[in-house]
Every structure is written in C-alpha cells, then in structure tokens.
Amino acid sequence: MNKASLLAALTRTIAVCALPVAYVRAPGHARFLACQWALGLRFPAEDLAGLTRPALHAFTTARTEAFWRDHQLIGLTSGHRDAAEQHRIFSEAVRSTGSTAAARVRALPPEESAHVHGVAMDVRPTEGAEWLEANGWQYRLFRIYDNEWWHFEYRTDVPRRLPHPGWHRSDRGSMAGTL
Question: What is the pTM of this model?
C-alpha cells in the first residue's frame, strides 16, 4: 500500500470513528460533519474561507458525496484569493514566461480571476479532480480549462470548456450569476 492509499484509508477510518460525535453535534448532518472533520485533518492547510456561500456549499456537498459513496478524497489546494495575491501570481507568471499573453495561459489578472470572486477551487489529488470532473455538474462545479485538471468553478449555467485561462475572455460568460 502506497502512502496516498494509506492516508486515504486512515482518513476514512477517522470519519467513521467520528460519526457518533458528529451525530450528537448535528443529528441530521453527521456524515457531512464527520467527513469535513476527517478531510480537515487530511488536508490541514486548506482554507475554505472566502468562497461564496453557494460555492462553499457545492464544494463541501460534492466532496462529502465523493467521500461516502465512492471513497474518494477531495482536498482544496486554493480557493478564494484576494486581488493582491492574484496580482502576485499573475505578475510571477509574466516574469517567468516573458509576456502577458504567455502568462495568461497559466494565470489571470485579478479583475478576471474567478478565485478573486470566490467561485473557483483548485483541488487535489488527481483522482479527486477526476471524480469532480465526472460528477461536479450535479453540484454546479465545472472544470473550466483544458490545461488545468485541478481548476473548477461554481457556475449557475454550464460553461463552455476553454483551452486555457486567457482564451477569449468575452466568450467565457458572465460571472454575475455566480456572485
């Protein structure tokens, strides 16, 4: 058994053991609560703060279903970013690629980033992203870019998949319905 499989099994064991306590705290939502506790231990650095209420609900509900139904763990690598952080990421991409156009294949400036709006989630591991790509539509979570297997966004309408973040921003659709 490799390290990832061992950690996944340990996380599931913790969730099952936490069920009685979760039931006492939230009788109608024990599986949800036990899952969030266990995944919080498995992915201690994840920060769900700043996601919009609908995006947070969609993400936590989807990963609870993945966890209990398919034994799949989904962790958040990056969610909401403030404009300054997104600017730093975009500026670094410009420096490393040598141009704004090349940088836009990897990152977007703050005014265009769904992370700044609190509706974007970068997830892990790869298997979790695969589960979300196959099932996320049920929760209004969609993989948006061909070149980013980890990036999902909460959308009220089914978006068109784009090759990369900077591809024809006018074709992307409005994020107004997601805020």
Answer: 0.88
